[in-house]
Amino acid sequence: MAERGCPLEAVPLPAEVRESLAELELELSEGDITQKGYEKKRGKLLARYVPLAQGVDPSLQAETRIPGPSQATAPVPEQQKTRPSHARDERFRSDVHTEAVQAALAKYKERKMPMPSKRRSVLTHMAVEAYTPPDTSSASEDEDCLQRPGRLASAPLQSHAGVAPWLDQAVQGSPASSAASCTSSHPGGRPAAVPSAAAVPAGPAALARVADLHSAPPDVTTGLAQHQHTYCERPQLASMRGAPRGGSRSVLETAGGVPVSSRVSSKIQQLLNTLKKPKRPPLKEFFVDDLEEVLEGKLWSRSLKLAYTLLNKLTSKNEPLLKPGDRVALVFPNSDPVMFTVAFYGCLLAELVPVPIEVPLTRKDAGSQQVGFLLGSCGVALALTTDACQKGLPKAQTGEVAAFKGWPPLTWLVIDGKHLTKPPKDWHPSAQDAGAGTAYIEYKTSKEGSTVGVAVSHASLLAQCQALTQACGYSEAETLTNVLDFKRDAGLWHGVLTSVMNRMHVVSIPYALMKANPLSWIQKVCAYKARAALVKSRDMHWSLLAQRGQRDVSLSSLRLLVVADGANPWSISSCDAFLNVFQARGLRPEVICPCASSPEALTVAIRRPPDLGGPPPRRAVLSMSCLSHGVIRLDAEEKLSVLTVQDVGQVMPGANVCVVKVEGTPYLCKTDEVGEICVNSSATATAYYGLLGITKNIFETVPVTAGGTPVSDRPFTRTGLLGFIGPDNLVFVVGKLDGLMVVGVRRHNADDIVATALAVEPMKFVYRGRIAVFSVTVLHDDRIVLVAEQRPDASEEDSFQWMSRVLQAIDSIHQVGVYCLALVPANTLPKAPLGGIHVSETKQRFLEGMLHPCNVLMCPHTCVTNLPKPRQKQPEVGPASMVVGNLVAGKRIAQASGRELSHLEDSDQARKLLFLPDVLRWRASTTPEHLLFLLLSAKGTVTSTTTCIQLHKKAERVAAALMEKARLTTGAHVALVYPPGVDLIAAFYGCLYCGCVPVTVRPPHPQNLATTLPTVKMIVEVSKSACVLTTQAITRLLRSKEALAAVDVRTWPTILDTDDIPKKKVASIFRPPSPDVLAYLDFSVSTTGILAGVKMSHAATSALCRAIKLQCELYPSRQIAICLDPYCGLGFALWCLCSVYSGHQSVLVPPPELETNVSLWLWAVSQYKARVTFCSYSVMEMCARGLGAQTAVLRVRAVRAWREPRTSPSSRKPPRGAPPPAMKGVNLSCVRTCMVVAEERPRIALTQSFSKLFRDLGLPARAVSTTFGCRVNVAICLQGTAGPDPTTVYVDMRALRHDRVRLVERGSPHSLPLTESGKILPGVKVIIAHSETRGPLGDSHLGEVWVSSPHSATGYYTVYGEEGLHADHFSARLSFGDTQTVWARTGFLGFLRRTELTDASGERHDALYVVGSLDEMLELRGMRYHPVDIETSVVRAHRSIAECAVFTWTNLLVVVVELDGLEQDALDLVALVTNVVLEEHHLVVGVVVIVDPGVIPINSRGEKQRMHLRDGFLADQLDPIYVAYNM
């Protein structure tokens, strides 16, 4: 800054020494030299001058000159010495702020933070320039964003796929770019110093000169086609200084001198007076024409020609396409102000409303869709452009301009001269008399990314030009150098409108030329002796970086240097640095005039030079802490957290300004408060086009005093600028409303956050200083997100450390935490049309998970401070008190039961046949040929069938083999290791025939022996199996070399192959002495990873089969289809037990066959007309995913390969040799009930989607239901074929966390749908008990589900004999009430609710709702969370999330998500997962793990094995794509 350079002025150092010091300082800042090397070289340079500089802070001596790359001295050099393009953005550099940041960081000890882990393949996929072409510019505030530019890189750019190759040619510096270095709007001769072809950059960039200009399409971004090299004359107008002149006249003379009798507005009068004045002699030094074709006085004639063409030559269905007042889009590149001016004034003459927009380069430009929405809302049907620009637009296959996404259908009109029609001599534009009519519409992008059109009336346009003329002192024939975009904002107001009014000469510098030669605007100021210049801080900064060696540069002609973004508080650094360097070259301090403007209020304030009566400039050093509370407090610069701002001058002539509260009623602020600046003036915009609601809020604000009295009878316009009024009525701006982030009760400005981030050694990590800061709303509050482009050569660890330091600096300086800090590859952030970062588009990509960062650091623990208070557990209420409370409240005890078994015994047969072996023998003797089992293959063919007599004989042979070959005794345990099939059933009954205890075990997977075989070995050992029954193929597998690597194959018990056993009968079939004798062991691995085996007695087995038979009405004439794993739980009972007991035919569909033919199960149900079918969630999900889009194909009827009359179930088998039936003609209308076997909360979303998907195949809407069982009782609820339909209720998820059930309406916030788990089976009683006090609970209270049933398991089978666990789970008693009944604890939370429905007995139906498992429940912040709720939210967060699982680790919530997409998209999920869990569950995610699909382990029932996943995570066995540790 200016003050910091003062000490150096006292030490007379030679110029060459000062330059060497400056270059040394630059090398240090860019990391080209170490601190030690810097001090050594600096000491040598200052050795002879040390006595002169004693007492001066060495760090300040090199700060007065902003260093830049050295270059050879040349009259007009355009190629600077190449420097690394990652320099610190000096434009927003504040030495005080940098020192404050470093001091703040020094307070922090180096904290060791967990580094995120990333798979190496992710790094290789992240191309540095994979998304957008490289931009030699850096960030700017052009698209309502204000970012930091980096250094200018003059090296040639690489060509990129997806971007037209002609884009590179223009940027690299072709002959066209040197010739079109400026666009003057004034006639005249040739200047003395105009860049010629000899001044084109040498080196690689010069290669572009060799290319033929016509060999590639022209560049629509720079418009450097040959016909644009000319300089067009700007018609003249009488000088308009001071007060506005004239008014309306009754007679209008056109350019041809023909009077027109009409009243016109003063705007049109003055415009036409300007255009019809005779041309002045051209000034040689202001004109150059490469084509030697002088275009003098053409603006009026060409505008007139365009107006005539628009109104008379464009027709649609024989009617004029346009009528006065219609809107027309102006699509012109930044390098063609002449054609744009012609189009703009041509529209005004035709009484059309121009809508200037940016040139769409691709169909996916940032913000392009919102611009299209604006054009559609404005009713734009015509777009004006140039021939060169039109050729460069994306084309459709027809050759027409492509339809851009979100844009309305447009007609494109090229306005080059040959395409326009010359009007007749007697044609004149109609005069306008309504000053309130809309003159033009300027687009504005809001903070949220939406685009609105700001309508400016003719009266406001004229008033704005008059006010600018008076405030800036513009006079006739002055030259203005314009670097800004002439299509909007200050570039339009000064460079196109006010300049015409005052007959000024305008030199326009295209943005592309500024990138190639940052000194071009200064060179034009020197060459044309320009009196005024219109720039931004970015342009001043770029000039500083390129000014070395320009010894003949003189800015003494400037009387006015308008800094258009002076409202940015950090622009003071650029102004000071620019003044420090160029003051010695004729720049006077009073020339720099910052201004403040907004699309709504146009120019709000501008600093006047002293010769125009402006007060001396002022600056204020404000406390950032106080500013965050909206209060102004002056502070000393020595304090760390300060913001230095400069004034932006006084308000515009004829305007009144006040400062009001930002939110709520617009009360006037006190003098020490920061608020929104409001303007009352005739020179402001009038409305948001077509948006009456927000127009009233913005353009018709009525400020009121504290007492509610309006301060004026005229409405004010809100500017969107935050600031205050200082001494001498000077306006100070401290930020913009669009950049305001309200965190808690404090307000922070995005620009301030960026400045702090840039002060933390950015040159090592941030690519060109490109940083975007915005806020996202998470959990009812704004959260700050910082996104920066990472340099390609930055290492992972260094970048992470830089992010950590940025977090610390922002926390110390601003006392606010950053919610998310993301680094993206270079050149991937969306760019604004004229450089800079498109912040709203960046925010949209962040929220949609499309940002694709390469490093992410989330800090929700420190940022989120508004979480609900943790639940404080109250002293437990005794069970007796709870019962009394329920009685007082009129609530019954939550207890329900199924039908009584004593009244349902169908005959004495059930009492006689207590044991399943007896039932099988009885069926083999009475109905020997009755078909019990039918096994299908993947092709739909029947691989094996079993009748009653066949099953009996197979069982006898197995029993004989066990007794003779294995020499087993009664009670020995036998492991059955079979694939799903009839052999498993025969082996099971063979064990029962000889008195052995069967243990069904899933066979190992041949392709995954290392994982599956140890589980088989564990079950065999834990169950103490004395023999293993299996097939020949599995026998070879168990003894193979591959198995030897996984287990010790020598320790297997006797392995008996049942494929080839002799046909022998057992001497006598074993009959258990008591019904309580152990029948079989049921082993399974729970979702928590615990291997548990339960004992099932013969009595329990028979009772289970009897209950299922009664519930499902199973008789020998019935058929059911089963697609379940037959190894444990209800799946085993349905596969092996129920058919023998009830006599029905079971169509067995092994689930592994569905991997080959996913339609097999549904086809089997349709083919065999099964009324009842059972499946698992994994089968249902496989069908929904694999067949969801093929229902029409399945519905097509096909001729069966075989058709045979079926008179009995035993005859229902296809003839041998018949071809497999086609998997078509599926009809599910036969299904009465389809039950999902599960031990979890019903997955209502999956069952509903399954019902909807297969509704077209005839599946009844209410057919799908669920069952519920657990380890202690495999079948508690089962819907069956009779009784009321399952009910669904909606509960408050927040109440569930507190163990309460609160019913809410469907669609209510935080509502969770729960469906009934099926009807309670006959003979089963259920009660809801408190899991800790063991007291009974009332209706609709959440508690543990306890069950009492004759088919409950009798206990756990374990080697260790944990009797305490057995007593707790299988022999529990209530602590109050019915203390005699013995209950089994299921370990699941749920509640009972009495519904209005009635069951078959006429009683009201009691519905059981299962909420979740106690073992899997997460205890966080004193509340109970169920993993499935969090997982459901996470899966909805992004379409790339295929599956999710959560668990806790050291009190941290760990979320594992499977990525169904590209690996480089993995980091997008980190923020989305954190956001959704915070929003919906009020939990902070500690670790986010991104893994490949299929990593989350799932058991045969489709249940997630979360504890196995947790063990794999802790053992580092998941091979994650990315692991993010949220700090």
Can you tell me about this structure?
By secondary structure, the chain is an alpha/beta fold. The protein is 28% helix and 21% strand. The chain is built from 44 helices and 60 strands. Strands 2-14-13-15-16-17-18-21 form an eight-stranded mixed sheet, sandwiched between helices. A hairpin with a 5-residue loop joins strand 3 (251-253) and strand 4. The two termini are 37 Å apart.
List the helices and strands and how they pair.
Layout: H1 6-9, H2 15-29, H3 35-46, H4 95-107, E1 117-118, H5 120-125, H6 166-172, H7 175-179, E2 183-184, H8 207-210, E3 251-253, E4 259-261, H9 266-276, H10 298-312, E5 315-316, E6 319-320, E7 327-331, H11 337-349, E8 353-357, H12 368-377, E9 382-385, H13 387-392, E10 411-414, E11 438-445, E12 451-457, H14 458-472, E13 479-482, H15 489-501, E14 505-508, H16 511-516, H17 520-528, E15 532-535, H18 537-546, E16 560-563, H19 571-582, E17 592-598, E18 602-606, E19 619-623, H20 624-628, E20 642-646, E21 650-651, E22 656-660, E23 675-680, E24 687-688, H21 692-699, E25 717-725, E26 731-736, E27 740-743, E28 746-749, H22 750-758, E29 766-778, E30 781-790, H23 796-814, E31 818-825, H24 839-848, E32 855-858, H25 860-863, H26 879-888, E33 895-897, H27 908-912, H28 916-926, E34 931-936, E35 942-947, H29 948-964, E36 973-977, H30 982-993, E37 997-1001, H31 1009-1022, E38 1025-1030, H32 1032-1038, H33 1041-1046, E39 1054-1057, E40 1078-1085, E41 1091-1097, H34 1098-1112, E42 1119-1123, H35 1129-1142, E43 1145-1148, H36 1160-1167, E44 1172-1175, ...
Parallel strand pairs: 7-8, 7-9, 9-10, 13-14, 13-15, 15-16, 16-17, 30-31, 34-43, 36-37, 36-38, 38-39, 42-43, 42-44, 44-45, 45-46, 58-59
Antiparallel strand pairs: 1-60, 2-14, 3-4, 5-6, 11-12, 12-24, 17-18, 18-21, 19-20, 22-23, 23-25, 25-26, 27-28, 29-30, 31-32, 33-50, 34-35, 40-41, 41-52, 46-47, 48-49, 50-51, 51-53, 53-54, 55-56, 57-58, 59-60
Helix pairs in contact: 2-3, 4-23, 10-11, 14-15, 18-19, 28-29, 29-30, 34-35, 37-39, 42-43
